[in-house]
Design goal:
5 helices, two-stranded antiparallel ribbon
Length: 109
Amino acid sequence: MLIDFSTVLLALSGDPLEVVKDKEKVSLMLSEAASEALLATTEKDQKVSGTVKFDRFKLAEKIYGKSGVELSLDEAKTIKDRIGEVCSPNVIGPAWKILDPKLDPEKEA
């Protein structure tokens, strides 16, 4: 599946989600949210093998700062799962709709 990781994540209002980067507000792109989620370490991750963590790192490298990236279903699931584990609902919602278009009722029409 081809995913555009340069897509800006939108709030419920339709406005871009913003984060502070280098003391300036910038729009949050899927590549940033997904990469940060893949690279984050949770308490649960203390028991995860180095191999799994390295695989997450390689996936973050693959998507960071990119637009059209071809992902396997397993890669998309890994990203979706990590976003679900470490991000807030205002990031999970728009990110999951991009990673799994069938979750977006507007795309079904």
